[in-house]
Design goal:
There is one protein chain. By secondary structure, the protein is mostly helical. It is about 60% helix and about 0% strand. The N and C termini lie far apart (about 90 Å).
Length: about 525
């Protein structure tokens, strides 16, 4: 008997490389700790593993409670074929969120503490309990697929009786913690950028989760068809596209009204890194998909729905990362970019999600057996023939949205690099500064009190710290130097450590500009 070894394909090799690098990073994480495996610090303790693996993971699994509520609570039976794929996605999503938490927690072996150490005043406590309970509910909702495969009829009958109570409990729990993830950031109004901080942040998280859940159902249906030739009916996916448009429209209107009501709408058009990232997020995840799904030819095409859903997914991943990373970076006083070990662990978790979904689709009754396709008579098809093919139209419009958002985000990154660059020296820019002093209301020089052991007082000059090509006081005066009215002169203000990373040391670190710790004479003059 001859044995033959099947050579792995391209995607299998990619999966093995991702899995290998992720396992190596896992060993580094659990042997060396967070400091050895991440770019996190005391000033920036939450990074990619919270922003993407937790916030995005929970939101990407939101289709489970959305579709279950539509079928079992609102009794819209035509969406029943969608339930199992969405339940599978939600169940895998929450399992992988728990895995990601084990990586991010400093002491993961204490993850069980919320079970016995109650703190009902903590939002984190509520999120922990909701995640645990909803994962249990999803496991029970997922179990009929396993019982059918094993032909266990008695457990199926018991679960059939419990289905509606389980769905109601699941909708309540998922609604609570989808919004509570936004509530986590309500306690940092001075740290989160005004473009993302809002009292309505829990509402924004919940509405975006509904749109994202529907988009993930379309996304997984397309990929399942490419891999296993199994997908959902086009009329059901088209209706999901309509739901996405409505949810995104509600989100956009509330967002604009909220920004206008808080006086932050003008910040959207400021030449800042945060404004560019906000515009890219809205173009990619809200405005672009609404325009695409508003075209009937795109909304009734499998590939068109896939491109639109992909933009929604990418846009709302960007939203969660903007809230957790971009909006918090300036107030921390440090610049954060995830290490390669953080990236490899995240890629490994995503790859495992795809692999487990593929195994479930292959061996369990996830998708309906038959697929109904609506046939179009040849004569009608000729009459409806458009001036440009559907696929080129989708690629053109989707490409415009994607690369437009990418260009806006890139301009934001470039602006941040310029803002962090060393400030021009006063003597080199005398003509520009003289003109700028007439144009801008520059505050007078500020002399800070001399501390113990200090070689001399420090006089701060605003004119030497301004980028005169693009003057922007908010680079420093949002955080860490808030604009406050101080009674008395500078000499009466209490002395503090101005050398740390939250004050002068933010730029004078020896890299961005000369070191505040080593080149003392550059500032302290007797």
């Amino acid at each position: 008997m001859r044995w033959s070894i099947r050579r792995p394909g391209f995607w299998q090799l990619v999966f093995l490389v991702i899995l290998g690098s992720g396992l190596y990073s896992t060993v580094v994480r659990f042997t060396g700790g967070l400091g050895a495996s991440t770019a996190l610090s005391d000033a920036f303790p939450w990074g990619l593993w919270v922003g993407f693996d937790v916030l995005c993971g929970v939101a990407l699994a939101a289709g489970g409670f959305t579709i279950s509520a539509v079928v079992y609570i609102f009794n819209i039976e035509r969406f029943r074929p969608i339930i199992r794929p969405t339940i599978l996605t939600a169940f895998l999503g929450y399992l992988l969120v728990i895995v990601a938490l084990l990586f991010d927690l400093g002491r993961p072996y204490r993850i069980w503490h919320p079970l016995v150490m109650w703190n009902p005043h903590s939002v984190m406590f509520e999120v922990a309990w909701c995640v645990m309970l909803y994962t249990t509910v999803l496991a029970l909702e997922f179990s009929p697929m396993v019982f059918e495969r094993l032909r266990l009829h008695r457990p199926l009958r018991i679960l059939h009786v419990l289905t509606v109570p389980l769905v109601i409990l699941g909708v309540i729990l998922s609604t609570l913690h989808q919004s509570s993830l936004g509530s986590l950031y309500l306690i940092v109004p001075e740290k989160l950028h005004p473009l993302w901080y809002s009292p309505l942040l829990p509402v924004f998280f919940f509405i975006s989760a509904i749109a994202l859940g529907c988009a993930m159902t379309i996304f997984e249906s397309f990929l399942s068809y490419r891999a296993f030739r199994k997908r959902l009916e086009i009329d059901l996916l088209t209706d999901l596209g309509k739901v996405i448009v409505v949810a995104l429209a509600v989100y956009l209107v509330l967002k604009v009204q909220d920004l206008a009501g808080r006086g932050a709408l003008a910040r959207v058009f400021e030449p800042t890194y945060e404004a560019r990232m906000f515009l890219a997020e809205m173009m990619l995840g809200v405005i672009g998909p609404m325009l695409l799904l508003g075209v009937r030819r795109i909304r009734t095409d499998h590939f068109g729905l896939f491109v639109s859903a992909l933009l929604v997914v990418l846009g709302f991943i960007m939203n969660r990362l903007n809230v957790s990373l971009t909006g918090m970076e300036a107030s921390s006083g440090v610049s954060y970019f995830p290490s390669w070990t953080e990236l490899s662990v995240t890629l490994m978790i995503v790859a495992l999600g795809f692999a487990l979904f593929g195994l479930a689709v292959k061996y369990l009754p996830v998708f309906p057996e038959m697929e109904r396709e609506v046939a179009v008579p040849p004569a009608v098809a000729v009459l409806r023939r458009p001036w440009i093919g559907t696929t080129p139209l989708i690629l053109i419009l989707g490409g415009i949205v994607f690369f437009g958002a990418l260009g806006v985000a890139y301009s934001g990154l470039s602006y941040r690099e310029r803002a962090l660059a060393a400030p021009p020296r006063l003597e080199e820019e005398e003509p520009d500064i003289a003109e700028g002093l007439e144009r801008l209301n520059i505050p007078p020089d500020v002399t800070f009190p001399q501390g113990e052991g200090s070689p001399g007082p420090v006089t701060f000059r605003h004119a030497s710290h301004i980028n005169w090509e693009r003057p922007d006081c908010t680079v420093c005066h949002r955080e860490p130097f808030r604009i406050l009215k101080v009674e008395g002169d500078a000499s009466s203000r209490p002395a503090r450590d101005w050398h740390d990373a939250r004050h002068c040391g933010r730029c004078h670190d020896g890299k961005t500009s000369f070191s505040a710790q080593e080149e003392c004479a550059a500032c302290h003059r007797p």
